[in-house]
Amino acid sequence: MNKEKINNNFLARWISGELSSKELEEFKKTEDYLVYKKINDASERLSISEYDVENEFKKVQKKINSKKQTKIVKLIPTIFYKVAASAIILLGILYFFNKPTTYATSYGEKINITLPDNSIVHLNSNSEVTFDDKSWNKNRIIKLMGEGFFEVEKGSNFIVETSTGTVEVLGTKFTVLSQEDYLEVQCYEGKVRVNSDDKQTILNPTNAYRNVNSNSELWNFTNPNPTWLFGETTFTNTPIKQVIKALEDEFEIKFSNQNIDMTKRFTGSFAHSDINIALKTVFVPMDISFTFKGENSVVLVNSK
């Protein structure tokens, strides 16, 4: 179906259920169908209590009561659905022009993002950032799920929002890792303020912060940059749950961990080049055996 055919009259017929089965099937195959359907669904939920449709309809009936009832019935729906079709197009334009910018990575994928102020975000595997580039000069706010390394240009405050806290900086380099009930921040340059559980923590270069199930931890590190930028993920006394999540995100696998001690912690690293070597590097020192069950599933069992 050509896009030229999807005009106001066509959308009005679609909304009123007047399309033929063939037209409807062709419309469903277009790239635009899901977009218009979402907008139409949203428009149906809009509140329009200010306009009394029933009362206005009665007024129209009184004014044109000399005409045939069939024409009256036809007149109102046609006008209504054409207006609705126009509203859908308008809502679609507003939706696309006001939609925030989102970048996401898949398993084992890493990308670099240049923000409107030339700050850079290095996004780790299976992660996502969202920001509004239209209001960036006033509100430099990024929402993060997963892990990112931020190289921030000097200027106004830069804020990273996560589900477990916020990180505020001013011209610096730092990493943020946000998972369920877990927040980890490492400061590489400048100064970072972490707000989590109604507490503030200031980090200077080589300082690191972790919040695990509302328990805060601090430590120092020596690496000049995040090692995952160069094909290796490093941990310092990290809960095994987060180590497993990092392996899943990097290699697109799932673990069965019911038969291991989840209170264990791991210090060390694994390379991204080979999954078998990575699993041995992590689990052998922890006395945990692993067995592949299918191509993308691994069963973990305590060795002792």
How many β strands by DSSP?
18
Q: Could you give the order of the helices and strands? A: HHHHHEEEEEEEEEEEEEEHEEHEE
Arithmetic mean pLDDT: 84
Our estimate of the beta-strand percent is 25-35%
Helical content (DSSP H or I, runs of 4+): 25-40%
Identify the overall geometry: globular
Distance between the termini: 64 Å
Largest sheet: 13 strands, mixed
Radius of gyration: 28 Å
Number of helices: 7
What does this 3D model show about the protein?
There is one protein chain. The chain is an alpha+beta fold. The chain is built from seven helices and 18 strands. Strands 1, 2, 3, 4, 5, 6, 7, 8, 9, 10, 11, 12 and 13 form a 13-stranded mixed beta sheet that branches. It has a three-stranded mixed beta sheet with strand order 15-18-17, with helices on one face. Strands 14-16 form a two-stranded antiparallel sheet. Helix 3 packs across helix 5. The protein is globular and about 80 Å long. The termini are far apart. About 5% of the residues have low confidence.
